[in-house]
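Is this the right way to post structure tokens for a design question? Let me know if I should format differently. Anyway, here goes:
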């Protein structure tokens, strides 16, 4: 019985190729870990038929914004915390579905920064999927928010980024006020918190930061408040909204 022999040059090439593949592993996909977030509501709010939800707005063809897609929701009557904060669970499976949806994960440059002035994104190849938080009234689970049912919103968000990046842009409002926003995002999913300052020397200028926070800082409750001007509500002292 004859046995096939492997030539040494071929064997050496195979070993070299194996070593190359081992030394240069592919880029690991970002994690889609499940998590729980806490939300604080205004004191004394009526929680009957009130729901807290996480959702994203898909970007349709032509730049139109589609109907919100729910990522998670929970009744506000279920606090889950001694101080009355509402706890909501976000499934890693559902988060992965969101980031794999091309209508959610888009280039930051042409998505979140669309329509802004003096835009700078480094690197400009970064993709993001932005999940927002709202509270709304509904008679049953599975009913999404509408303009009429919307009660509270937050300027914080949960964001996926294809890679770590930093950015800045200028936003000019209809009333003549301007805001300069800067921010950093970490790769993968992160909670992004908003800070606003209104220096007294430039009352028409607002300084906004939107930065990813450390995982440990995600335990701090996300504040839900009545929809309102995101700049003027800060006052001169500024601070968290």
């Amino acid at each position: 019985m004859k046995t096939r022999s492997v030539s040494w040059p071929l064997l050496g090439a195979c070993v070299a190729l194996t070593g190359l593949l081992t030394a240069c592993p592919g880029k690991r996909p970002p994690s889609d870990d499940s998590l729980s977030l806490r939300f604080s509501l205004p004191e004394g709010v009526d929680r009957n038929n009130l729901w807290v939800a996480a959702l994203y707005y898909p970007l349709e063809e032509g730049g139109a914004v589609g109907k919100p897609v729910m990522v998670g929701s929970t009744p506000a009557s279920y606090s889950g915390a001694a101080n009355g904060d509402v706890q909501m669970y976000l499934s890693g499976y559902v988060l992965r579905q969101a980031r794999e949806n091309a209508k959610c994960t888009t280039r930051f440059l042409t998505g979140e920064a669309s329509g802004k002035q003096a835009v700078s994104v480094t690197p400009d190849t970064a993709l993001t999927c932005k999940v927002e938080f709202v509270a709304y009234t509904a008679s049953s689970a599975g009913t999404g928010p509408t303009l009429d049912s919307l009660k509270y919103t937050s300027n914080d968000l949960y964001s996926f980024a294809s890679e770590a990046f930093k950015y800045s842009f200028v936003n000019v409002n209809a009333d003549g006020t301007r805001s300069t926003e800067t921010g950093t995002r970490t790769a993968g999913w992160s909670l992004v918190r908003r800070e606003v300052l209104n220096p007294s020397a430039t009352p028409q200028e607002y300084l906004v930061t939107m930065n990813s926070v450390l995982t440990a800082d995600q335990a701090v409750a996300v504040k839900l408040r009545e929809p309102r001007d995101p700049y003027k509500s800060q006052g001169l002292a500024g601070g968290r909204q």
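Format looks fine. Someone answered above. Worth noting: Residues 8-23 form the longest helix (16 residues). Residues 1-26, 232-241 have pLDDT under 50 and may be disordered.
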